[in-house]
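Structure first, sequence second, as always.
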């Protein structure tokens, strides 16, 4: 049942993104910022945590999950380090995902053979 919940929650988040692309004039960059910001806000309000418990990777893999991870990192760092945690918590929480994206993007750039679209 965990797989089913992850599938439909992640799919629903993707449907929302696709509807924003198809039905609005928002650029993909603005939609990405909207998703990350939504994850931060929902995490701060305590709404996204239960969704992560319910859906697992269906809620953590989309961009809203990245925003939630940033907000959780800041929350935990503020508890441990007080004011300084505001600046370090998000960086610590998002470091693994950001590093993986940079590394695999670099590997893909080395392997790919770029060419014109014509």
């Amino acid at each position: 049942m965990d797989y089913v919940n992850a599938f439909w929650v992640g799919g629903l988040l993707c449907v929302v993104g696709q509807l924003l692309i198809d039905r609005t004039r928002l650029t993909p960059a603005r939609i990405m910022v909207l998703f990350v910001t939504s994850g931060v806000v929902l995490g701060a309000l305590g709404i996204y945590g239960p969704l992560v418990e319910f859906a697992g990777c269906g809620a953590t893999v989309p961009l809203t999950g990245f925003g939630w991870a940033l907000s959780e990192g800041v929350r935990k760092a503020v508890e441990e380090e007080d004011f300084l945690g505001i600046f370090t918590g998000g960086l610590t929480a998002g470091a693994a995902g950001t590093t993986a994206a940079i590394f695999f993007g670099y590997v893909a750039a080395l392997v790919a053979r770029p060419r014109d679209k014509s």
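Margin note: The first helix runs from residue 2 to 23.
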